[in-house]
Amino acid sequence: MVTLGMVTMTPGSHEAASSGPRRARRAPGATVARRGTRQPVTPTTGGPMCGIAGMASTSRPDPELVRRMCDMIVHRGPDGDGFHGDEHAALGMRRLAIIDVATGDQPVYSEDGRIVAVFNGEIYNFAELRRELAHRGHRLRSAGDSECLVHLYEEHGADMVHRLRGMFAFALWDRDRERLILARDRVGKKPLYWRSDHASIWFGSELKSLTQDPRMDREIDPVALHHYLTYRYVPAPWSIYKGVRKLPPGHVLTWERGQVTTRRYWQPDRTPRPVTDEREEAERLRELLLEATRIRMVSERPIGAFLSGGVDSSAVVAAMAMQSGDQVKTFCIGFDDSLYDERHKARMVADRYATDHHELVVTTDLLDVLPRLAWHFDEPFADSSAIPSFYVAQMSRRHVTVVLNGDGGDECFGGYQRYALMNQAGRIPAMPQGLAAVSARAGALLVERSGYKSARRQLGRLVRFAAESPSRRYACLMSCFTPEQKFEIYSHGLRDRLAGVDSYRLLEELFRNSSATTDLARVLEVDTATYLPYDLLVKVDITTMANSMEARSPFLDHHLLEWAAGLPDALKVRNGQTKLLLKQAVAPWLPQELLHYPKQGFGVPLAAWLRGELRDLAHDLLTDGTARDRGLFRPSVVRALLQRHAAGADHSDRLWALLQFELWHRAHAVPGGPVMTEIGCPASRA
Predict the structure, then answer these.
(1) How far is Cα 240 from Cα 216, in angstroms, rounded to an integer?
(2) How far apart are CA 377 and CA 534, in angstroms?
């Protein structure tokens, strides 16, 4: 049994007691902002992080339902709530006060009360927007950012989203036009679910809010399940429930008297621009990162940073330390298994910038945390790094309310090794269609009929990879279950329902519609549109908000994203090396050895867990009568996967996806159902 262990560092071990903040080093390109000094960019601040929920209807809405919807997400906003109700709309929110703690309550209204909004997020350019709105005669009653929304709508209508710099999901009700506007930020940092029967529309920050309506059908969408088993997450616009949808990032939804329309409002231009001097580009990158970090450091509550030891989070910590008058608080997670432990790298940065450093060794009872995660993640979610993410958020919340992180650095600047592989694979000439089909099938047969570690199996994977189009090559790299593996494990009934549904087409369509001119640039665009918002940002949002904490991501500032999108490929990936320009830019800030470590990721010893601490749990949950009676998967295939993994083959990704689906189903899919009460987890409130 794994046991919980929290490491409280002793003096000299990075959690030393301190009589006062230690002065951090400056680095080239840094602009140091001290308290009480004028900063080089107009100061900005932010508003409340929270959860929102509500409904609009052609008939009278149900305000009590909206209150129950908000009660389900109290963890997103423990500091208060707010509600609006009229003849056709009921809006609610839960508040986590970060800025404008005294006067930042919601909902917010226009001067005449005609426009009302509830908001989840931070608008970093709100001070500039407030000045513009005041100049145009609007009366602003609060000191925060939320109120800007209603006045921007009066000025620009739904195009107001183009004026916002930050992370957000909001609902805005135009009473006179009986129009509801729902919108998400450009890259999807904040979530938003919705469902509609045309006469009414319901929305919420989390899916568990919508399930508070007893009339909602909880039928599983088989297409969503099909996509989940490929990608480890349910991509937008699907949700795991048939009648519920996710609003995709960078989209606006309009419901007006029963009619629903959605439109995309943002997509960065990936046309490469000419670059004459890499040093100038590196300097510009430092400037952009410093500014994006600085505007995310404003808070009336304690602030810190996740420090994994990778280049991205280390660069953010450096940018914070160079612009803060206080000692930066940093938080790191680790494992006893050295293959997954990066604490030594994080300590290099903590030492360099004299941060107030905290570490946690995950020696946790997994039978406790897995049901808790299943309750917080409203859909099946099979990224196992959610476990350390939850624990580092839980640890950090004891010290701070806001954390900065390095999310987005890989997608902006080409950090994953798969980008180098795709860049090299792009040199393989395209096969004629007939030969490609034969080669792909031959490769598949070699994989299917070979031992797990055999050379024939590896040859089969290579043959198949070479035969595919670039989009399908990439889909293969990102797959948990391949199409063949999914149809092998499906029951006959599920197989019939999903005949002709190809999850890889999602990526093929994105490749086909991309504005990029190279395969590498297309892959970066695809990851920014899929893996980033539906995996990484979901993980961070859910695990931080489960602990009533806000996460901010400087690399996902849309000004920096748009600038990075126009960089030529050679400044991102070259000769098998990744993230070239970013490493060049932050080299003056970081220990040199840190720049040359191979990317490790935020992994966990999943294969070992499924042969050890989680072996009995996985076997029991995946093979008991409850799972079998669901009729989705073939029990013999599931048992064979468990047996082969126990014997030494690595099927951990697929078993983990099945296990997370089973945990989710027992937590949510049955109204009022328990969350694994048989292993001691508290009952679900879903």
Answers:
(1) 13
(2) 12
Per-residue pLDDT at 111 exceeds 50? yes
pLDDT tens string 140-155: 888 788 999 999 999 9
The one catalytic residue in 50, 70, 412, 480 is 50
Whether residue 50 lies in the annotated active site? yes
Cis before residue 591, ω within 30 degrees of 0?
no
CA 437, 440, 443, 449 dihedral sign is negative
CA–CA dist 238, 639 (Å, integer): 29
* Peptide bond between residue 21 and the one before it cis (omega within 30 degrees of 0): no
DSSP strand pairing (89-96 vs 115-123): unpaired
The H or E element spanning position 256 is strand 251-256
Going by their DSSP bridges, the two strands 303-306 and 402-404 should be labelled as parallel
What is the tens place of the pLDDT at every residue in 166-208?
Answer: 999 999 999 999 999 999 999 999 999 999 998 999 999 999 9
Distance separating alpha carbons of residues 136 and 131, to the nearest angstrom:
9
Give me the DSSP letters along 577-614: B-SHHHHHHHTTTS-HHHHTSPP--S---HHHHHHTTT
Q: How far is residue 310's CA from residue 344's CA, in Å, rounded to a whole number? A: 11
Give the Cα separation of 143 and 498 in Å (integer): 52
Q: Which of 173, 65, 77 is nearest to 117 (CA)?
A: 173
* Strand (E) or helix (H) holding 456: helix 455-467
Does pTM top 0.70 for this prediction?
Answer: yes
Q: Which residue has the tokens 């035969």?
A: 467
Q: From CA 209, how far away is CA 662, in angstroms rounded?
A: 21
